[in-house]
Write a structure and sequence with these properties.
The longest helix is centred in the first third of the chain and has 36 residues. This protein is an all-alpha fold. It contains 21 helices and two strands. The protein has two domains: about 375 residues, Amino acid/polyamine transporter I; about 40 residues, no CATH class. About 55% of the residues are buried. The protein has a two-stranded antiparallel sheet with strand order 1-2. The protein is globular, with a radius of gyration of 23 Å. About 0% of the residues have low confidence. It is found in: Membrane. Its main location: membrane. GO terms for molecular function: amino acid transmembrane transporter activity.
Amino acid sequence: MNFNSLFRRKDISNGGHVGEIQDHGLKRILGVKDLTLFGVAAIIGAGIFSTIGRAAFHGGPAVSLLFVFVAIACVFTALCYAQFASMISTSGSAYTYTYATLGEIFAWAIGWALILEYSVSNMVIAISWSGYFTTMLEGFGIHFPHYLSIGYLNAYESYQKVMADLPDLPTNVLQSAEIYRNAPEIFGYKILINLPAGGIIILLTSLVFVGIKESKAVNNLLVYLKVGIILFVILAGFFFVKPANWSPFAPNGVGGVLGGVAAVFFSFVGFDSVSTTAEECKNPQRDMPRAMLYCLAICTVLYIAITLVLTGMVSYKELGVDDPLAYVFQLVNMDFIAGVISVSAVIAITSAILVFQIGQPRIWMTMSRDGLLWPKFGKIHKKFKTPAFATIIAGILVSVPSFFLDMQFVVDLTSVGTFFAFILVCSGVLYLDYKGYSKKAKFKVPYVNGKYIVSILFLIAFALFIFKLDYKALLEEKPLLIVFWIAWVGLSVAAYRFKFSLLPTLGILTNLYLMTELGWSNWLMFLMWLAIGLTIYFLYGYKKSKLATIIKK
């Protein structure tokens, strides 16, 4: 095996295609409005209706500042995505962008990580959707059996906590433990399965299979409804805000706020889903950069507003639930609004699931066309003009775990791979600058010479770290910070030598820092997933790569 062949790259001048540019049969019907709404659908569904409650539970009202910090980190990354989108017109998101800059082995790693990100994201949203669905049914007097609307892992862990007699257990944990205790048994095994979560994945996978036009129409309608609901909740909740609930603002300190970084960052990952639909966009090089930045700006404002309202209405201690919006209005005896939220959320969260189910098969489709996955994944349905086989497999991969898993488990699983993808996209822009390709981009990351600024920022940050914090205890708790500081030193040297652009460099640093906030279990699961992916690559993708065939010719 030739080591250099691991870093073979796509030709950017060819639009990110391998070989001659072809029409693969997908329908180009998406405009900037449609793309923006796809981004809003993915971002809002993942956060406001699910993980935002758990983040506030750990960090208190100060989590609103964490949303600002994470949004800034995402802006650096989104600008890099936007530049790539203006240069490369194929589907594949970060996979394609990395293939054109850092090489095939990194592209495979990112593609494999994105499979994990998109799958896990939809599992989380589907589990949250299930909570709102059963709440909605209760509002209509319909009792859905609890043991058929909860994952086995969630109920079992709650039961173990109760049996261990742990103090101050939240209400939702006690309820889950009771469901486990009373669940029927077959051959000594408890029957516990989340039917609504898995069922909604199957239903929407069917819609995605039928076509992008139908998916677009449904998504646009649901996003308009979703944004309207959030604005309604913000206005209605404002009248129940008690400023006393904002004190203490950061009850668990900086550590408590940053402890929610996985959940908060997860809320923003949807903006990269826009780039998976490049081949179904009318004018991808113009519209995709705009859509990414538009959706990120809209969602950041909504996140901050809803976080302040939620933590102002009730104590942050009450927010460790999967359906925080409906829950807080129940606590203030506004069951009517809680009912409206539950009914609307069931409809609105659907759009987030839909977008991720659209994005995942298109990444597989692109990898298959490049020869890195089996040809079947790249086949386009003759009638529906969608990647049919990839769509079906994506539905199976997401729906089956959704029947059984706990939401917090899958939230933590997705974040490392996402950070990794974002870091490589930012690094790819630095490569484009170095090679002079950025001059050809229709949208370019604003250039600020980081030759001296990166080093100055390092000295300031490191001084604060050493003199203002208990760095020894912090390093013992988060040893991965050592990797972060070493990487910053390396980037400082590289920025001085090559006059690196500041914004992509800050994107790398902020995403790398956020990675250090994640636990060892996150890293271990991601490394295991990556090891499986690399095994597949060397057994199949490396040998079958179409780019390798072209280079040999």
